[in-house]
Amino acid sequence: MPIGMRRQIERFPTMRVLTGLLAVAGFAILCALGVVSTASRAAAQGCAQCYQGAAASGVAGRAALRHGIFILLVPAISLFSAILSLIYRRRNPVRSAVSRFP
Amino acid sequence: MLASTIAESIGRSGGANGECFGRGGGGDPKYPASERVYITGMLIALGGILMFFSALVSAWVVRRGLPNTDWQPIPLPHILWLNTALLAASGVTLAYSRRCLLTGREADHRHWWSLTAIVGIGFLAGQLLAWRQLVAAGLFLATTPSASFFYVFTAAHALHLLGGIAALLALTGRLPSRLTPETATYVVALYWHFLTALWLLIFVVLLLGG
Questions:
Q1: All domains in chain B, ordered by first residue
Q2: ipTM attached to this prediction
Q3: Contact A71 B7 (CB under 8 A)
């Protein structure tokens, strides 16, 4: 990001939060895509009863289960991404302060 | 409003300076490092509440989507629209109250803060009226799955909001000695705006699914 744009963003806390939220959302979407793309390999291997129940619920039931799992996934990954992002940004407060006020 | 409140927190707690965990020192003298732990605690609590309601919404989606079930949409009471407007208005009054506090208008701050608590109580009264309307229509907790979800959603949210009203009323009287007014009101405002946004989400869910 250009330095001028970065300074403009840092001047306004709301913009800083919005850009941070966008970064977190992007990371969360990437995580979600990674989980979803590898989910078929898991194939409900943990519980045969759950697998049979999901298989017997028909197309609509399976879609409902997928949506329900996805809804559970979104806040969990968002919180994880937010905490990870916070830790990463606060990893070295002294260096950040020096680079901000040279 | 929630974004601006979080932004205010980051701006006041040092933001990129790395002072959020109280390591850096400095920052706004009105917002001492020893008090930031309350904000961190509140943010963690909000994460837990978010997960709780996400689990409820997920259960609602699965239960509603399962085929050959007894899911029947219920007519939502019209008073929910008024309640939603009340809660949104309370968010505005709360934000204005904090602005009055930060600009040194103590009397205005107390006035708008009390008004927020009153509007919040009005919201809860409206929710009670909505429940009474449903009961009058013969829809009880165990009548249909959609009615059960309606009662669970609204009751869980109302219980959380009751905590917010208690905090508002507590700060109307005497401020805690270990907190500055800015921090105390900020933590309560964060919680209140979160519950407002949460109610909007719940209301949309109820509108979509009935």
A1: 2-209 (1.20.120.80)
A2: 0.72
A3: no
